[in-house]
Design brief:
Helices cover about 35% and strands about 20% of the residues. By secondary structure, it is an alpha/beta fold. Strands 1, 4, 5, 6, 7, 8, 9, 10, 11 and 14 form a ten-stranded mixed sheet that branches. Strand 4, helix 4 and strand 5 form a beta-alpha-beta unit. Helix 5 packs parallel to helix 7 and helix 8 packs parallel to helix 9. The structure holds iron/sulfur cluster. Monomer.
Length: about 475
């Protein structure tokens, strides 16, 4: 039997998180963020609305909690860096038409899955969820509350993405009243010149006022999204952004790399390439941001995310309970995710199902009384085995050989004997530690987490070019 455990292994480097330019150059490639496995590139139209209906019916009798994701696709303005599924419009009545179709979809869904499972997670994403006005947001929450068992427990995670240009402190009070307890602010960068270059001008004073209001209204968690690699950004501007961000002490920070792919995302054509920072400037910015956030007390949990050490995500990761779904990291165990709205993805049982990505098609199917499914996949046993390893590594930075054997009745080492040389090379590079009882990601390896997960991804080679950079 081939074994992955090297008795003569080179002593791995376990230094605190540090950016080694040589390692970054070696491991900088394109790869998934693993919010699902298999990823959406494996979804096909062979998975139909009938398949989805069967999975919903099967999920009806399960007592475990449920997670809801509602996609609200409209935006008032176009951010030039955007790669999201969104519709930029100021046309009156679009939200009304969309709400009417959400009502049809919710009715169809609850006919199958029922209304009893406690909804412990709810996320409004977009687009811009706060494109909806106060009455429309209230109507939508009422619609959900009248069809699902929304959880009253304070442990619930009810979150909404906030475009600071579309909310006031008073709107935050309304959102708190509607039951949201987590806010995710799209900050990106606070430098006015960078903001002009990406067509997203939002004043820092307004963000300060909103964060103050969010704390006053007792939102449990405040997250900021930041992006590095944007036009007109450099270490000096980013340093100022980090000053602004650290002063506000958000509980969580997602620091994303800007992927310039104008051939795929037309909006990005407005960003002039000569304004973009070079690869070495981007590495310097990543190093700067990582150093400053860690010095400010944040823990890097992996996959672009920094959190306060007392945050539940850091605590869950320590205990090995962290999980990941399409909305990112999460601490609450809700095994099934019901996606609602155009392009939304559901994870029900062993299936992933995605709604139509085209709004006309989404409306057409609902008007015909059909679940608006476009594509999906049913996970094979092989997928489930690989998904387990990838999610353990991505969330808890470790996969236990014993837990793997207990779950799948096979040895981790035998099952993945073919990737032994790759893992050994990663051990030599100080990214992982391979021991008899499992594989552990080192502090250095947290930056290359996606690369380690990719070792266990059997679909990767055909699709590498479709993903963003791993580092
Ligand atoms: S970044 Fe967000 S707000 Fe900007 S266009 Fe994209 S989805 Fe809309």
């Amino acid at each position: 039997m081939t074994t992955l455990i090297q008795t003569t292994a080179v002593k791995p480097r376990t230094a605190p998180l540090a950016l080694d330019a040589g390692l970054i150059a070696k491991y900088s490639t394109q790869g998934p963020r693993y919010t699902s496995y298999p990823t959406a590139l494996q979804f096909t139209d062979q998975f139909t609305a009938d398949d989805y209906q069967r999975h919903l019916l099967r999920a009806r009798s399960i007592a475990a909690p449920l997670s809801l994701y509602v996609h609200l696709p409209f935006c008032r303005w176009l951010c030039y860096y955007c790669g999201c599924n969104k519709i930029v419009t100021k046309k009156p009545g679009v939200a009304r038409e969309y709400l009417d179709h959400l009502a049809i979809e919710i009715e169809l869904l609850t006919t199958e899955i029922g209304a009893t499972r406690p909804v412990t997670q709810l996320h409004f994403g977009g687009g811009t969820p706060t494109y909806l006005d106060d009455a429309e947001l209230t109507e939508l929450v009422h619609l959900l509350a009248s069809h699902f068992n929304l959880d009253a427990n304070q442990e619930r995670e009810y979150s909404i993405e906030i475009d600071p240009r579309t909310v006031s402190p008073d709107r935050l009070a309304l959102l708190r009243g509607l039951g949201f307890n987590r806010l995710s602010f799209g900050i990106q960068d606070t430098d006015p010149h960078v903001q002009q270059a990406i067509n997203r001008v939002q004043h820092t004073e307004e963000i300060i006022a909103l964060v103050g209001a969010a704390r006053a209204y007792r939102f449990n968690s405040i997250s900021f999204d930041l992006i590095y690699g944007l036009p007109r950004q450099n270490c000096t501007t980013l340093n100022h952004t980090l000053d602004d961000v650290i002063a506000l002490l958000p509980d969580r920070i997602a620091l994303y790399h800007y992927a310039h792919l104008p051939a795929r995302f037309a909006a990005q054509k407005a960003i002039e390439r000569h304004n973009l920072p070079s690869a070495s400037e981007k590495l310097a910015m990543l190093s700067l941001a990582t150093t400053r956030l860690i010095e400010a007390g944040y823990v890097y949990i992996g996959m672009d995310h920094f959190v306060r050490p007392e945050d539940e995500l850091a605590q869950c990761q320590k205990k090995g309970h962290l999980q990941r779904n399409f909305q990112g990291y999460s601490n609450t165990l809700a095994p099934d995710v019901l996606g609602i709205g155009v392009s939304a993805i559901s994870a029900i049982g062993d299936s992933y199902a995605q709604n139509s990505r085209d709004i006309s098609d989404y409306y057409k199917k609902l008007d015909a009384g059909q679940l608006p499914i476009d594509r999906g996949v049913i996970k094979s046993t092989e997928d489930q085995i690989r998904a387990y390893v990838i999610m353990q590594l991505a969330c808890n930075l470790r996969v236990s050989a014993q837990a793997f054997t207990d779950k799948f009745s096979i040895s981790l080492w035998e099952k993945f004997a073919d990737v032994q040389p790759k893992l050994e090379e990663m051990q030599q590079d100080g990214i992982v530690i391979i021991e008899h009882d499992g594989i552990t990601i080192t502090e250095t390896g947290r930056m290359m987490l996606r690369n380690v997960c990719m070792v266990f991804d059997q679909y990767l080679n055909a699709h590498t070019q479709s993903y963003s950079k791993t580092i």
